[in-house]
Amino acid sequence: MIDFLSFVFALGVGFGVSCWIFGTMLDKSNNIGDYKGDSGDYNAYAKFTTKRDKMDKGEIQSFIYLYSERMSKKPSSDPSAVLYKGTDLVRRLTPEEREQIKKSASAGESVSEKNGISKKNSFVDEFEQWEKDYGTKSDLKGVFRPLEEEDPRRAGL
Amino acid sequence: MATLCKNCGFALVFDPAKQRLVCSACGSAFRPEEVESEAKTYREDLEAESINKINGTDDKDLMDCYVYTCSECGGEIIVNGTEASTTCVFCGNPNVVFSRIAKQKCPEYVLPFKVTKEMALQIARDRISQGFFIPKQIKNFSVDCCRGIYLPYWIVNADFQDAVVVKGNVKQGKSSVTRYFGRAGTMKLKNLPLDASRALSDESSSKLEPFVLKDLKRFDEDYLLGFYSNVSDVTYSDIKKSAITRAEEFFKAQAMDDIDASSKEVVASQPSIRLDPDMVYAMLPAWFISFKYKGKHNTILVNGETGKVVCALPWKKVLFFTLLILLGIVITIGAFYVFRATLPAIFAGRRTSSSSKNRGQLIAFLIAGIIALFTTGIRKVVKVVRNIQLTQDKNIFNFMKKRQGSL
After folding, report:
1. Quick check: pTM over 0.80?
2. How far is A88 from chain B (nearest CA, A)?
């Protein structure tokens, strides 16, 4: 019995290690330049505004709902919406269009606002709205507890 | 359409080594931005005729093909709707098909080739010769075609926002439990180059990166002389999709790094992006080198600025599997003696509940380790095979090959 178990484990370790070694060697030998650049190459650093650790499975959808921004589709809040449609071929802007974009940026809006990202007014508003829309119908009722408006996790949103 | 040498009237081409337009007849060299030529004005009004119109046909394959006349020899130059420069098949002169890149379609910047054709071939050969599992025929490949192509890119700025939920295992006492971690935040993308050519897959073009964008020069069509080039043919939706894919990769990687757990995996996310509509249109350089191996075309890409080589090449399967099996047998024999010596000691211990729990954990750890080794190894092989398919992709080959001329 011990011999059989030893053989099975040895076989797994032997071919497992061999597979790992030669898989790595093949990747280094034949797969050349398989690197697209990472966030460091483009100074694209994420600024986390909310961190939640050790959540339950039932909290996944609520987290996504509460903390993901939704882009406004109103043309009035997105200057680019009047410039082009999604199906248009990408083109360089005319000087007049550039001027238009500049004006909306200099009207005190941030780059995000200029580009039409809709910011939530407050967490409580968001929660109340969600509860109105889904709270009574959802089987997740009772999962959410309103947090304080000053919740540091919301800082920066 | 060709720019001529003001000293001898011969056609000029851009030399990446000298970063000048050079005349191969008299050896004169000029800076592209200094050259004033009638050809530049002439190109702006240049009109093309649809090949279907000329032939009086309605062939769908020819719908996007246009005919120009070479200003030097009068020969016909046939290009597809997205090409911006080519060579004349009759006189070999470089030609910029200017009406395709005039005015709004004209790029703002160009990153001139720094790597010459000879250098590109040498860099590719040097890199390939280092591959242990690359067949000898590939190491000594004979070039079927080598073309320098300016690829159109949109360089974008964008605001990105995402909320991700990551599943991971954390230790709780002696065992580990599955937990979910949420990370939400924003990210600013600055000067992210996105491939603007539909004919070339984003996966191939993104591997050519990074480009050193600080070396971009104001666009001058003379930089295109002697090279092929394409113009942008993507829509705003295409660009948005590409940008969101790249940004999502960056964000998820950073979210995963921020979480202290093992076996991490993103289980939910809700990304959104807003592109700055004022994008920069630039042409970035790449060498396409093709060769045939076992009846299949393989295309190696070389970044025309940095010399980065991109390809995945067929492997010596017999050598690979022979070595894998041999090493597997050797390690198995060694491990067999180790296990035969240690297992009896493990199993012969006192049969208390805590010792049998420890035994169980040890065996579970061993099995998990074996599975991890197998999956990591197999995943790497699968990745190589997938990338080989990309190198042998007909679309990349056709993108390079289906052009007039013999550069």
Report:
1. no
2. 5
